[in-house]
Write a structure and sequence with these properties.
The protein has helices spanning 17-23, 39-46, 58-67, 69-73, 109-113, 140-146, 149-160, 165-176, 184-195, 203-218, 220-232, 248-261, 294-299, and strands at 29-32, 50-55, 77-81, 98-104, 235-245, 282-284, 307-313. It has 315 residues and is of the alpha/beta class.
């Protein structure tokens, strides 16, 4: 029996690694588009697959190269620094195709735990949140300092499902006129200014609203929507595409995209004649999303919100 704990390390505990291996079983050449700490890659390598891993975080790529050095030597693993949404611009992967593609969305435990990366709402953390580190674009502090009230409202409403989004956006704009937003404390104080002191606010509220800012800083939903068709184009006939999502917006995009690809006719309902070709691009393998078991959730609470979906391209 596969031991999921064997694939975890101090960098990250991979979620539903067993399930990923099971769904991708038979895929001997896999693209891992979110390499992270290399946990899923290790599980796939140990199952016999070759793995090409990419990650937009240089620290993740370096950690995975060190961890999986023996597989690099054996010619079964390579790691490339890139955003999976920009795969078509990676010279090393020009024309490369795979019979398995895997994405594990969100952030790693290491990124959250490293206060210097600015993903945490712990006291004194910088407001950074860039996946690429200092090589990325504007950080979270810049977004909170420069975005107008309407943009901030949209971020909290769309990415955090927050009914008080406009009030929070207005509070941020009001506070930044007196003092710039530089650390997690500034955003936490703004949230408390709208929601009230504990117990009305706490880790769950902060995590949801900080996540919304992180998604905006890294254009995570936009990048995912652009990347899915490109990654599908990298699959060989009969190849399998697996995505683990943790945010409802991400999961919705994946679910709707896989459903559209599995539909024989995509013409508008009232169109009298089919012009799309009437042939499905493939088949959805997961009628309902696969979720982590109780034991895994107890060992790794981050797994609680994970939804795994899979799709197979037409042969």
């Amino acid at each position: 029996m596969l031991d999921a704990g064997a694939w975890a390390n101090e960098y990250h505990a991979p979620v539903m690694a067993k399930e990923v291996v099971d769904v991708l079983r038979g895929c001997d050449d896999v693209l891992d588009g979110t390499l992270g700490g290399g946990g899923h890659a290790l599980a796939l390598l140990e199952s016999g697959a070759r793995v090409t891993g990419i990650d937009r975080d240089p620290e993740a790529v370096a950690a995975s190269r060190e961890r999986l050095a023996s597989f690099i030597t054996a010619g079964r693993f390579r790691a490339i620094t890139s955003n999976y949404a920009d795969l078509d611009h990676v010279a090393e992967l020009a024309g490369a195709r795979f019979n398995g593609v895997f994405l594990d969305l969100g952030v790693s435990s290491h990124q959250i735990d490293d206060l210097a990366r600015g993903f945490s709402f712990r006291e004194g953390a910088v407001l950074d949140m860039r996946m690429e580190g200092t090589e990325g674009g504007p950080d979270a502090a810049s977004l909170l300092q420069e975005a107008d009230e309407r943009t901030l409202t949209q971020i909290f409403r769309d990415y955090a499902d927050e009914p008080r989004a406009q009030r929070l956006a207005r509070e941020i704009v009001r506070r930044r006129e007196r003092r710039p937003f530089t650390t997690s404390d500034d955003l936490v104080d703004a949230i408390r200014g709208v929601f009230g002191a504990p117990p009305r606010t706490g880790p769950a509220v902060f995590a949801r609203l900080f996540q919304a800012i992180r998604i905006a800083v890294n254009d995570e939903l936009g990048g995912l929507g652009r990347a899915l068709p490109s990654l599908r184009g990298r699959l060989t006939p009969g190849g399998v595409f697996v995505v683990i999502a943790y945010h409802s917006g991400e999961d919705r995009i994946v679910k709707q995209t896989f459903r559209a690809w599995s539909t024989a006719c995509t013409c508008p309902p009232k169109q009298p004649v089919c012009t799309c070709g009437g042939r499905a691009l493939g088949t959805t393998l997961t009628r309902k999303a696969i979720t982590a078991g109780a034991a895994e959730v107890e060992a790794n609470p981050r797994a609680r919100s994970a939804h795994l979906r899979a799709w197979r391209s037409a042969a």
